[in-house]
Write a structure and sequence with these properties.
Chain A has 340 residues and is of the alpha/beta class. Chain A has 11 helices and 14 strands. Chain A has 2 domains: 273 residues, Rossmann fold; 34 residues, no CATH class. In chain B, 36% of the residues lie in helices and 21% in strands. Classes of the chains: A alpha/beta (340), B alpha/beta (620).
């Protein structure tokens, strides 16, 4: 479709007529608003968007988007999205999922979608809790989480969603935060522009069951101390006074204070196109060290063959080689005999 | 070799109506290939036939042991052949273990060809035998041909420069050559096959060819067989034929459905015995635009198919019992969002992993009821390997016409068994008209066609049709989420009415045999052949028996209840613990009685006949 025929969309065009039913104050509102703001700017006809979800609070997302939408079953959105994208590669397929849906019951589908590099964008809303089932700990909850099902504290180690995605060699991996609206929109646009699977972890607050889970990152007075915004080609500098940085030391990252002989030239310069996922993996582990900042932005964005394109190409190649299938010929293939 | 052709006394040629031959050996002995070759040659000759490949789940159980025995049985005849045969006329046993496992099925005075070279003390020990049955007169009831297959094959291949192991791999073709001679068959089809199969390895083609010809010549040159047999071609319906297994037939049927409907075929599947061959077959036909998606698990296989159906493909998923269990929730989703998919279950012994390579019919109630809440779906079952082709078309047609998931219940016996199949003209294939919704004016996602109650198929990418579907209960017409109690009840009824609407197209049950009388036998699926053969024999003895074989298990033929009441007794033979029986009794309040077998094996004709004798009195 020629770009000139595309209507000029506004945010309103992507709002459905359904009443939004998340709890007042839920971080999901901010994510919905960001997506509805970004979609009109992508130059894609509205009917080409398909939003697919699983089960959970975040998975109500498609009902509120005035696009094609499919609210599926728990954990399976990546697999359904894969089927859609293979069948119609021209569609823009987005998955809305959560830490329970996408990493627990649906963890297998998430990693396999990323492994195949299917051109689907996965937005993983991470609130570190099960909201819709009223407050059990999730696979991203911190160890010792006291929740409905763990009155004495949870025992299992959490997933780091970015590390997991990178372990599957996802070609686009990013993180943003519900309340960082300009940052979130910028990340969503980059995800949309990426050819191949895009995995975006969105840190999201559940103000009912896990309020303040991300306060240490989001409160105005600390956010610049506790996050480091990644920008391709720029050194990793953070802090309100932009006086701290991240430096590579052997196989580890360390936080250093600028000055006293340490300059920006000593810092790690972010390369989101680094071919080895080990680099982005290292970044994804940065805040595992207490006191180190949490990276936000695009950790990795590399080109790789897209699964759905290869599927179509294989069919084309075989068809060229064998010529288009003929049913009568197929049925009569092999040894036949005639009975008179 | 003791004799020359000149010394051979004139041999008799006997003409038979039918014969059953079984090749048995180690799972590494190539028995499946040997059996397939004999079958193909026999089919080309024009016999009707049925096959029963029977192999262990282990790829290579320890060589020479009882669990490692693999068998291939073929029943071929000059008249209609309905089963793979109850008992065996000729048994080829490549080692003592194969002999021990299979001897019980050999008829008295049957032909027994054994590889005499594999009856050494160690071979006997592996088979749990203290002494050689070739020496203790335990085989006196049979016509035993103890032939040094290994030694003779090595002699025949001596000049080729192959190592001993490679030469020994050809001994099955020596045995095949003997069988071709015994049944007066041409070696040409197998020679052609060898040239094709080993095109890149001409030495192996040569070796197998030499082994087979040596086996044939051995019979000619020795006095081994006093009699050879002719089984004249069968009088089949005129037409062009090929030999076809159930799984291949399903694959071809789905391609035909794709071509007929104009919808691209999408198969989501996860490898599982005995269904994987459908995936293998379809993956070779990309020139028909077929997408074969080998998913990460059974759930992804079906949910990817649902995604493809949503996007406008003819979507199928193929599996066996354990995979069906995993797909349950997704079938419920397809029921709720009313999207067309076909779910193929190649039933095997269960529960759990059960008997992966053995046949069973015990997933019927799972197919009918194995989902949470009220979620009826159409269920179909093919009755023969060739019928799998037609069932694939019928299931696809119903799915897209009514916008429902449809379940097909095949089984291990149909999947691997083969029969001559009359190749249809394309004009014989059913029409499959599919219309996507394109008009945005007045579009409501859950508005229904008046007769089929199908909702519109509105695929993403269609301007103006943006809408949301999902697993939450739908408001009638709009498809919006609704928790309204009366709406829920109405939707439950609508989904059931839609499946029931299919019954308008289900052909009435027309009993084979007597239209009324002493007994009606009601079967479904792969038992068709055995029941047909048993009833022919029983009716030949003057009994008034009818046979209803159900291809549609949901909805059932509308006249079924009335038909059952035309007989004094109702017998339901099944390869399960009595599942259709349960259904018929509940549905029609008839005092139907069971005949069940859950041994991982198909019915024998004799088993069914003795059950009928028991019911109607008077044995033979």
């Amino acid at each position: 479709m020629a770009a000139t025929t595309l209507p000029t969309y506004t945010k309103k065009d992507f709002q459905s007529d359904q009443e939004v039913r998340w709890c007042p104050g839920c971080g999901d509102y901010a994510i919905l608003s960001a997506v509805q703001s970004v979609f009109p700017e992508l130059g894609v006809p509205k009917e080409k968007f398909v939003v697919v979800s699983g089960i959970g609070c975040s998975s109500r997302f498609p009902y509120y988007m005035n696009t094609f939408g499919f609210h599926t079953i728990h954990g399976r959105a990546p697999a359904i999205a894969t089927g859609i994208k293979i069948a119609r590669p021209e569609l823009e397929v987005w998955v809305a999922t959560g830490d329970g849906d996408g990493l627990s019951i649906g963890g297998n589908h998430t990693i396999h979608l990323l492994r195949r590099n299917v051109g689907v964008k996965v937005l993983l809303f991470n609130n570190r809790i099960y909201g819709l089932t009223k407050g059990q700990y999730s696979p991203t909850s911190e160890v010792g989480k006291k929740a409905k099902s763990t009155p004495y504290g949870s025992l299992d180690r959490p997933f780091n969603p970015l590390s997991l995605a990178l372990g599957a060699e996802a070609t686009f991996v990013a993180r943003s935060v519900d309340v960082f609206q300009p940052h979130l929109k910028a990340v969503l646009k980059k995800a949309a522009a990426h050819q191949g699977s895009a995995f975006v972890e969105i840190l999201q607050n559940c103000n009912i069951f896990n309020d303040g889970a991300w306060d240490a990152l989001t409160e105005k007075d600390v956010r610049e101390e506790h996050t480091v915004a990644l920008e391709h080609g720029k050194p990793l500098v953070f802090g309100k006074a932009r006086d701290k940085g991240v430096r590579l030391h052997g196989l580890a990252l360390e936080v250093v204070r600028l000055g006293d002989g340490v300059s920006e030239a000593d810092l790690l310069v972010h390369d989101e196109r680094h071919p080895d996922p080990a680099y982005a993996f290292l970044l994804s582990r940065l805040d595992q060290t207490p006191g180190f900042p949490t990276p936000i932005g695009v950790l990795r964005a590399v080109d790789a063959p897209r699964y759905e394109v290869q599927v179509a190409e294989q069919i084309r190649t075989v068809t060229e080689k064998k010529s288009k299938g003929d049913l009568a010929h197929l049925l009569q293939a092999g040894d036949t005999w005639r009975v008179r | 070799m003791a004799t020359t052709a000149a010394e051979v006394p004139s041999r008799r040629r006997e003409t038979l109506e039918s014969a059953v031959i079984r090749f048995a050996g180690d799972s590494g002995d190539g028995m499946q290939i040997t059996g397939s070759q004999f079958t193909n040659t026999t089919a080309l000759y024009g016999n009707d036939l049925a096959t029963f490949p029977d192999f262990p789940a282990e790829i290579r159980a320890p060589a020479g042991t009882l669990p490692g025995v693999s068998g291939f049985q073929v029943h071929f005849g000059a008249a209609d052949v309905y089963t793979a045969g109850d008992a065996v006329d000729a048994l080829v046993a490549m080692n003592p273990a194969a002999l021990r496992v299979n001897l019980a099925d050999l008829k008295a005075n049957g032909i027994l060809i054994v590889n005499a070279d594999d009856f050494k003390e160690t071979d006997l020990k592996k088979a749990g035998l203290a002494k050689s049955p070739l020496e203790d007169h335990s085989l006196d009831a049979y016509r035993v041909f103890a032939v040094g297959l290994t030694r003779l094959t090595r002699n025949a291949l001596a000049e080729l420069g192959l190592d001993a192991k490679s030469m020994d791999r050809c001994k099955n073709f020596f045995a095949l050559g003997m069988c071709y001679w015994l049944y007066n068959r041409s070696m040409d089809p197998t020679l052609r096959w060898l040239q094709e199969k080993f095109r890149a390895k001409p030495l192996l083609a040569e070796a197998n060819e030499r082994a087979m010809k040596a086996g044939y010549a051995y019979c000619e040159a020795t006095e081994a067989f006093q009699v050879t047999y002719d089984i004249p071609p069968a009088r089949l319906q005129p037409g062009l034929y090929r030999n076809l297994s159930g799984n291949t037939a399903l694959a071809l049927g789905f391609i035909a459905a794709s071509q007929r409907s104009g919808l691209p075929l999408f198969q989501g599947s996860y490898p599982i015995t005995p269904a994987s061959d459908i995936l293998h077959e379809l993956s070779t036909h990309k020139e028909f635009g077929v997408v074969t998606f080998q998913a990460e698990d059974e759930i992804a296989a079906i949910t990817a198919a649902i995604g493809a159906a949503y996007a406008g493909s003819l979507a199928i998923t193929t599996t066996s019992g354990p995979g069906m269990a995993l797909k349950t929730e997704a079938i419920g989703l397809a029921t709720m969002v009313e999207l067309p998919i076909v779910v193929v279950d190649i039933q095997r012994g269960g529960p759990s992993t059960g008997l992966p390579t053995k046949t069973e019919q015990a997933d019927l109630l799972q197919a009918l009821f194995g989902r949470n809440s009220e979620s009826p779906v159409p269920v179909l079952a093919p009755s023969s390997p060739g019928d799998c082709f037609w069932i694939a078309l019928e299931a696809s047609r119903i799915a897209v016409k009514y916008m429902v998931p449809v379940i097909v219940l095949s089984d291990g016996y149909l999947a691997n068994g083969a029969e001559p199949w009359r190749i249809p003209d394309l004009a014989e294939l059913p029409e499959m008209k599919v219309r996507f919704r394109t008009d945005p004016a007045g579009f409501r996602p859950y508005e229904r066609e008046p007769h089929t109650l199908a909702r519109p198929w509105a695929v993403p990418g269609t301007p103006g049709l943006e809408h949301r579907i999902g697993g939450l209960e739908k408001q009638d017409l709009t498809g919006n989420v609704s928790y309204d109690p009366l709406n829920h009840e109405r939707m439950v009824q609508l989904r059931a009415a839609k499946v029931e609407a299919v019954s308008a197209e289900v052909p009435d049950a027309v009993p084979a045999g007597d239209p009324e009388g002493e007994l009606v036998v009601v079967g479904w699926g792969s038992t068709y052949g055995a029941i047909t053969a048993a009833l022919r024999a029983q009716r030949g003895r003057g009994r008034r028996i009818g046979h209803v074989h159900l291809r549609h298990l949901n909805p059932l033929p509308r006249n079924l209840g009335a038909v059952l009441k035309r007989y004094r007794r109702v017998l339901v033979p099944e390869l399960n613990a009595g599942q259709l029986l349960w259904l018929l009794r509940a549905r029609y309040l008839v005092d139907a009685v069971p005949y069940t077998k859950v041994q991982g094996k198909p019915f024998k004709q004799a088993e069914l006949e003795s059950r009928i004798d028991e019911m109607l009195g008077g044995g033979r």
